[in-house]
Amino acid sequence: MSMTNYTALPVINRQVLRDVLPLSKPFTVLIEPSSLCNFRCVQCFQSVKTESYFTQTKSHMSMERFEKVIRQLQAWPGEKVKVLKLAIYGEPMVNPKFCEMVRIAVAADVADRVETTTNASLLTREVAEQLVDYQLDYARVSIYGCDQEQHQAVTAAKTPLDAIHENLRVLQEVKRKVGSERPFVSCKMMDAYGSDNDKFLAKFRDVADEAYIDKPHSWIRVDGVDFMKNYYGDGIGKARADLEQHSTERTACPMAFTTMAVRSNGAVAPCCVDYIGGTNLGNVDETPLQELWSSDRWLAFQTMQLENRKDENSSCARCDIYRSDHYTRDNIDGFPVANLRPLKSL
Questions:
Q1: Which residues contact residue 310 at a Cβ distance below 8 angstroms, ignoring those fewer than 6 apart?
Q2: In Å, how far are 75, 225, 232 from 229, measured between CA atoms?
Q3: What is the pLDDT of residues 3-15, one digit of tens each?
Q4: Overall pTM surpassing 0.70 (yes/no)
């Protein structure tokens, strides 16, 4: 089967969310192999030094917990989830068991595709061979600069940019050697609004199946921290103008209706940007995913979104990513809350 460019996946055979609500299971399940990261990117909460829920719960996910999540997905009747993503807030390859997690996830056949997001700094030849052998579908690679100076300034990483390029070259070499299209490698860099975009594309196009320019967004707001300005500096004006141009007037965040995110500590949320934990609705060690999805607590969270009461939640009150037409395409404003209940009462 020929692989599709990562950027095209969200629009291929895409269902309009409003037309298919309520879902019997989420479209996307994220599992966090590790919340630790070997980068300290200035535009990321990993660089924030103050104590928080995130810093207090940093950990690798144990294999026992990971296998429990996979078993719960296998036991959940109905069609497979569309995406099983092995990444949330940390660098997944920091977990020494990451490749084993990929093997188990792919073999379980619980999702149409299994993917990860990585900075590729730990992508050794051995890891590359395992990812190809286990047939990970997609590897989305985050690049943070078109040259070493910018890469170092943003990430404070020990791994040079050229080493990351070499890691990806080796992965492509391993794929060619066995005639595999998997994993499809999609490299992206946040829009630099200038010639640096072309430099990035020229540098990484030869080691990627796709290279593209991503759009900026701000994480859940932290007092005294401006993530976007940390990254763009004096160029922040163009980034903010772009962000505003692609911001909608929607009120309901669709993630709660499509997504389950399982943190390394077992916490489960309907959100993939809530690193401070305000949207945690349960723990996989205590409640199976299927039960959580149909719980009154999950319904109450969805209702809060549809009734535009996000200010009642400590995380949602500080988040506006749901307004981005780049990251969240669906508008479900006005969907009747009562229409969610038939599913929940089963």
A1: 251, 253, 304, 316, 317, 319
A2: 45, 9, 5
A3: 777 667 665 567 8
A4: yes
